[in-house]
Amino acid sequence: MTTRRALLGWMAGAALLATGGWATAVSAEQATLNALWMGWPEEQVDPLMDAFREAHPEITLNVERIPFAQIFQTIEVRLNARGPDPDIFIVDSPLTASYAVRGYLLDLTPHLDASRFTKAGLAAGTVDGKIYSAPFGSSSALLFYNKKLLAEAGIEPPSTDPAERWTWAELVDAAKKVAKPDQGIWGFVFEQAERPYQLLPLPMSLGAEMISADGLTATGYLDSAKSVEAFQFYQDLYQKEQVSPPGVFDNNLTFELFGTGKVGFFVGNPYDLVNLPNKYPDLEWGLAPHPYFVDGTPVTPTGAWHIGVNPNTDQMEAALTFIDFMMQDDTQRLWLSLRPYPPVLEAVWEAEADTTFADPGWGIVRHELAETARARPATPGWREYEDIMRLAIRDIQTGADVQATLTAAAERIDRELAKYR
Amino acid sequence: MGNGIRERGWIPLLFLAPALIGLIVFRLAPIGIAIVGGFLQQTLRGETVFAGLANYLDLATDPVFWNSVRVTLLFNVLINPFQVVVALGLALLVFRPGPGVTFFRAAYFLPMCVSLAIVSVLWNILLDTQLGPVNGLLSALGLERQPFFRSESQALLTMIGIASWKGCGYWMMFLLAGLYAIPDDFHEAARIDGANAWQRFRYVTLPLMRRPILFVLIADTAINFLFFAPIYIITNGGPAGATDLLMFQAYQSAFAYLNHGRSLAISTILLVVIALFAVVEFRLFRSPSDA
After folding, report:
1. Contact A419/B44, CB-based, under 8 Å?
2. Do residue A247 and residue B255 have CB atoms under 8 angstroms apart?
């Protein structure tokens, strides 16, 4: 009996302690913001967050970095709980519509000065005339090449002039000369080898539309003759020509293959302009514009990371303070220096015109953003579209029949998008 | 005395409470939620509405689901008997004391101590078509490189291979315990009657191992129907749906296609299928004396 009483007393005490501790935490003056962020390297995230902490000591900022391969699932689970956590989250711009229709995003229109943003950046965060995700970066694509491998294969490197950009056929010819699959040397690799982001520009370059105008039907678009032709080309890179390494899907691995001198050509992002010299200072590389199909027009991918506010946050004021801070010119210039996504603020383009953007690589990026950039299909079902397409791309790479795979993927997408009708 | 026990009937419950609460929170409640959730759907705005059989009817007309059912059944029809036979074989090999037996027991059990996620990553690298050491060995021996996870025809068998590499040693331990529980007298009596090794195995060991084998078979079946991590990490259900197990479809439905109702419907179907398999296995292995 005494033992039981002692036990009960101990439990009650513990409970008191626990609730007491909680009460103290809640009554503190400090506002706490929880941010769900992309799993970029610490040195590209921490300085940005520390700048915010320094400017706003009254706000405690917790940042969770989630790897790219899990970020969309994580956001889905956390936001679908419809609770107050996280207060802030990183938004891949083509998912803005998906999140907005499901009530994951606060309408930021009253809190942003739309005139400060580039047209494309603003468009990527806007749904039905309202800004749901605050633009934090854009993206583009560049053709990187390994100078040593090209010289060894006796290849004249491609020009930096967009008017003289290579066709895909020229790229494959050169890649074939570089590739020695038995020695683990490859001709070419897409940085995001399974992602529609970098691969939809192939059919788009041939003039294919990837979804219906209302964004809800893929059949007849994704599996059109032009789309099949483009993805047949993609399959041939791995199967017929054997210039690309099959089964390497993780963008960290493709980056590493290029960085360690195992690939001749690499379609990468402007942030690689900083990541490559940081991680592989000895690699000698050059730049050229993204290739295109000779029967088509040059098309490059664009759109990137934006920032969203959870409408259920109980730290609304602090969350908007965060957005305001991240939208300042200086913050976005800092961000550009950490991980260079093409800016979405006109002021940053102007301020860095003679420094960062004087670089010939950035000259190409500016040209692409103005002339060839095409956003991903506008649909509230981008999450489903992207994942179904990703699996189809894997199958195509492995050698599956291209027409049958794309038709099945399109049917699957239509099935999943029915809920948005 | 009898009254005292009745009065204090709650005390045993109190002692059982931690385990019972765990069972309810982590097992029974999720099962309940899955069964109920299979009849619900979420609107775009997150409201939950009653959907009747809509999720099940949707699955019935979905070719991806039916392919997944086919793959899941094929996987289990192959892997469960295979693992039980291999586990029993390993148990018999390391049963009798002999030189190095402890080493082999530990070696067979060791893969169980590696997390499934790490096993997946390791075997994915080992079996890589171009860069993997296994293919390096094959080509050094003058044999053809094998695509393993990248081939529609080999991917599922390769999955069975790595699942068994990890699982068989574990199930071996249960069967080993079963072997030790058979009194030596039985074998001795059989030997005196002139039974040879095969006859002793067939007529003494096997009948007496009925219960441990049944346990291993049922537990193994339940685990293999829920096989998930290597699919998620290595193949994502591919190539061309060759490893698209129902668990992966349940995951995809919830987290990629944002369709929780269908995900829970698939989970419920899995639960029913596992229960059916367990009943069949139970009947197959029921000893005549239990009938």
Report:
1. yes
2. no
